[in-house]
Amino acid sequence: MAQKPARGFAEKTLAELTGVLEQTLFADELAREAGWLQALDPRAKLLGAFAVLLAISMAQNLLVIAALYALTLPLAVASRVPLGFYLKRVWVFMPFFTGVVALPALFSPFSPGTPFVTLIDLATPRVYLAITQPGINTAAFLLLRVGASVSIAVLLVLTTRWAALLQALRVLRVPQAFVLILGMTYRYIYVLLHTANNLFLARQSRVVGRVSGTDERRWIGASMGALFAKAYGLSDDVYLAMQARGFRGEARTLDAFTWRVRDSVWLAVFIAVAGGAIVLGK
Amino acid sequence: MKMSNHAGTPAFEIEHMDFAYQRQVALKDISLTVRAGERIAILGANGSGKSTLLKILAGLYFATRGSVRAFGEPLTEQALADEARAFAFRRRVGFVFQDPDVQLFSPTVWDEVTFAPLHLGLPKNEVIARSEWALDLLNITKLRDRAPHRLSGGEKKKVALAAVLSLRPEVWLLDEPTAALDPRSQTRLLDFIGELSREGKTLITATHDLDIVEDLADRVIMFCEDHEISGDGAPRAMLADRARLIACNLIHEHRHTHADTGEEHAHHHLHPAPHEHAH
Question: Is B119 part of the contact surface with chain A (CB cutoff 8 Å)?
Fold first, then answer.
């Protein structure tokens, strides 16, 4: 029996990436749920998120940052964001990205101070390596700040329709070019990932058995070129299609934002919490 | 929808137009008048320039030489730089792209269908009314909240049509509308196009599918591979001119023997998939 060709690293990564992006970014499914954050005006959410992000980056106290993060959990639940999904999305990937950056900060050469655990302590030759208290402190700050900030951004994106979010950015005077690039990026990532996946599928249908590493790399290199050319042509056409239907650089949505009393109230609450955190965390 | 009250007046007038991508010639010395209410098929092999011509008529590409006028006014980049003029033009001309994945860029079907009327400055209640009407007419109201990229090929095509229908344009530009459609979807599409025509819309369809030409056009403009107009006439006469069809790479000569009768004869096949036929 012919052996099923093994799926390469690049292929698997791409397929997974497409799946995750489709579920989260592109589906807008959570944003359509009748949840608590979904019901808020996107402008209130955006300003509120901005205030809290500011507080997270300014607070000098770990407990205060942790408390701000903890407050997002009931918000997620009230907005029907599955808690496991919300936690995993942020904290599973955190060690790989921020963790790597934070790791050196743990050790004495980078963060001298009271040792927490002494790892190496030789008199001659003099070699000393310890995980220090200030090191733990620095790493914890970094991880917590990034984790809390990313969580808030994730919560905002998950509970706001993409088109509405772009429009809110425009209403809040974020430069049009920036909003436009964001909008286009969103579309192209999707188109590109699909084209890439199809390239792999098309090849898989024609390959029997194993492919050598060299051939695999050569093929991936060639496909990247082909993909680039294809994406470039497609991006041109998509832009024409948008132009043909009246797009002139400004995204409009039908949902007229209606600012209600509750939006004012909750924006005030967000700002008060953020302000309080900044004062407490000094 | 009402009959167009501009029937017979020129919708487009093209005189001695050239178009080139960078330095590569895509259209050469094109002169053509399209009257309101006409049904035209632009026939040509892949790469003959028919899609490019549609994009010029849609005000997406602009002539490198010669003149193009739409509804009596010059159709130039400068003219469309003015928002009011651009909106007035784009409300009258709808473009259905060949690849629905190109045309459907919004997160939901509803966003897609409302996109054109919304971006062309129609009042919101009008946008909603027209979009609901378009979804209903194409029988896809149930797809309203779905993501376009997750639909089937036939459904995507319907959404692409609804996205233009909500604009109620006078002129419909259709690029290879039946490409990659199953037979049933293809029949429904032709019915839909027939309906548009009965309402007096101007229809310009680019295709290389000879089988549908008589269904959707009263006039055929044929492009050869030299990017010039090779012929302009009634479908029957144009389709009977086999020498021209062969020269323009729209059919190819194919000789074979029928197993049941032993009769040997030559006949034509549509070009793009010449080796997929069976007898």
Answer: yes
B126 touches chain A (CB under 8 A): no
Mean pLDDT of chain B: 86
Write out B20-86 in H/E/C secondary structure: EECCEEEEEEEEEEEECCCEEEEECCCCCCHHHHHHHHCCCCCCCEEEEEECCEECCHHHHHCHHHH
Nearest CB to B87; choose among A32, A242, A246: A246
Partners of A242 on chain B (C-beta within 8 Å) are 105, 115
Distance CA B103, CA A17 (A): 24
pLDDT tens per residue, range B117-165: 999 999 999 999 999 999 999 999 999 877 787 788 889 999 999 999 9
- B120 within 8 A of B169, measured Cβ to Cβ: no
Q: What is the pLDDT of residue B208?
A: 85
Which helix or strand (DSSP H or E) is residue B101 part of?
helix B100-103
Tell me how far apart the alpha carbons of residues B69 and B50 are, in angstroms, rounded to a whole number: 18
pLDDT in tens, A43-76: 999 999 999 999 999 999 999 999 999 999 999 9
Cα-based distances in Å from B138 to A242, B160, B165, B178: 22, 10, 9, 16
Which DSSP symbol is given to A166? H
In chain A, what are the domain boundaries? 1-31+162-254
Burial (CB < 10 A; 0-12, 13-18, 19+), residue B182, is: exposed
Size of interface A-B (CB pairs under 8 A): 75
In this structure, which CATH number among 3.40.50.300, 3.40.50.280, 3.40.190.10, 3.40.50.10860 belongs to the domain B10-255+262-270? 3.40.50.300
Peptide bond into A125 cis (omega under 30): yes
Q: Give how far A252 is from chain B: nearest CA, Å.
A: 7
Structure tokens at B44: 């040509």
Interface of A with B (CB under 8 A): 26-28, 32, 161-163, 187, 190-191, 194, 234, 237-238, 240-248, 252-254, 256
Beta strand residue intervals within chain B, DSSP E: 10-21, 24-35, 39-43, 65-70, 73-74, 93-96, 171-175, 202-207, 219-223, 229-233, 251-257, 264-270
- Give the ipTM of the model, two decimals please: 0.84
Q: pTM of the full predicted structure?
A: 0.73
